[in-house]
UniProtKB/TrEMBL annotation:
It comes from Racocetra fulgida. This is 5637_t:CDS:1. GO terms for molecular function: nucleic acid binding. The lineage of its organism: Eukaryota, Fungi, Fungi incertae sedis, Mucoromycota, Glomeromycotina. Gene3D superfamilies: 3.40.1350.10. GO terms for cellular component: mitochondrion.
Length: 214
C-alpha cells in the first residue's frame, strides 16, 4: 500500500469505537430511572437500546424475584452485563447475566457464548440470559442440554414484568421447590414463580454492594 492509503486506513481504524467504549458517552446513570432521565442522547443507537434493556432487565429481576444485581458496563467485562446475588430462603446464589436487545431471536451460538462465560465463574453461580425477542428452537434445545445452570428470560412492559422465564435442569439443583406457572387476568397471562406451591415472596435481605462488587 502507498503511504496515503495506509494513512487513510489508520484514520478509519482510529475513528471506529467499540460499542462498549461508546457506552462511556452516557455519564451520570446507575439504574433505569437515572438512565431514562438523561438529556440530549440519541435513543436510536444500538448502544442506547442495549443499555436501556440491561437496566430494564435488572429492574425486573429485582422487583419480581428480589435478585439484586448491578450493571457492569465496562469495556473488558468478560461478556458479563450484570452481576449480583439472589438471597433465597435457604441459600445465596451468585448471579451473572447477559442481555441481548437484538432485532431477532437468540440463536444457539448465544447460548454457547454464555456457557463460555459461566464456566469461568465459581460454584453456586446462576447465569441469566435476557433476550428482548426470545429464543430460537435451536437455542432452547441447547440451553436444555447445557451442563451449566442457566435461566432464560424475556422482559416486557418497560421492565415491569417477565414475558417469559424458565431454567434448565442444572439450575434446578439450585432452585429446589421453585416452579413457573401462568397467572391469568382479564387481559392476558404472565409467568408466575412459585416456591413450594405458593407465589414466591421476595427475600431481599441485606445487601452491601460496595462489599460484594470488586
Amino acid at each position: 500500500l502507498d503511504p496515503m492509503s495506509v494513512k487513510r486506513i489508520t484514520t478509519i481504524i482510529n475513528n471506529v469505537k467499540d460499542e462498549k467504549d461508546q457506552d462511556l458517552i452516557y455519564k451520570g446513570h446507575h439504574d433505569l430511572k437515572s438512565f431514562l432521565a438523561l438529556k440530549d442522547v440519541n435513543k436510536n443507537t444500538p448502544v442506547y437500546r442495549g443499555t436501556l434493556y440491561e437496566y430494564q432487565t435488572i429492574a425486573c429481576l429485582k422487583t419480581t424475584l428480589g435478585i439484586v444485581t448491578r450493571r457492569v458496563g465496562k469495556a473488558n467485562d468478560g461478556g458479563i452485563d450484570f452481576r449480583g446475588q439472589w438471597i433465597l430462603p435457604d441459600k445465596r446464589l451468585y448471579i451473572v447475566g447477559q442481555c441481548k436487545a437484538l432485532a431477532k431471536k437468540c440463536s444457539p451460538n448465544i447460548i454457547r457464548e454464555l456457557e463460555g462465560v459461566v464456566c469461568q465463574e465459581t460454584e453456586g453461580t446462576l447465569c441469566i440470559l435476557s433476550s428482548m425477542n426470545g429464543f430460537t428452537e435451536g437455542a432452547i434445545k441447547r440451553y436444555i442440554a447445557s451442563p451449566f445452570p442457566i435461566m432464560l428470560i424475556t422482559v416486557t412492559d418497560h421492565g415491569r414484568k417477565f414475558g417469559s422465564i424458565s431454567w434448565n435442569k442444572k439450575a434446578e439443583e439450585y432452585l429446589k421447590g421453585f416452579q413457573v406457572t401462568l397467572k391469568y387476568d382479564l387481559l392476558n397471562s404472565k409467568p408466575l414463580v412459585l416456591h413450594n406451591g405458593k407465589p414466591f415472596i421476595l427475600h431481599m435481605g441485606q445487601f452491601d454492594s460496595n462489599r460484594f462488587y470488586h
